[in-house]
Amino acid sequence: MLKGVNWIAVIVAVVLLEGLGMLWYGPLFGQAWVAALGHTPDMANQNVMMALGAVNTLIVVLGLAWLLRRAGATSVNAAIMASLAAWFFFSFTTQALEYLYMGMSLPFVAINMGYLLVSFVVAGATLALVKIGAPAGRAATA
């Protein structure tokens, strides 16, 4: 399943998404997110949470790379469109239902959904753009 994966593109995408997450939940929306959450998250296990978050990001990017390759989405536009579809049909719908049952506030949901939306777009574009390390015959896609 991972044969032909452009690991350099995957790693670049993971690093970009981890950086985006730090900005998103830090200076950009951190205070609003904590306010919407209703309490300050327990940061006692911050290193473990960050490591698990990075592993989760790697799994998502690998899944997206596989999907883009299977869909033949080799251009940036096609990769972004496929990434938006993946976000909507899988991430948005799953999380929307979860947040609905959890009774989360609209600002909390909007911040989290916004991050995931931007993440899918950034990952898809990155996977299409990074050509270094791409296996022969596998143009642009990871």
UniProtKB/TrEMBL annotation:
Pfam families recorded: DUF1761
Listed InterPro entries: DUF1761
Keyword annotations of the record: Membrane, Transmembrane, Transmembrane helix
Residues spanning the membrane: 7-28, 48-68, 80-102, 108-130
Listed name of the protein: DUF1761 domain-containing protein
Species per Swiss-Prot/TrEMBL record: Phenylobacterium hankyongense
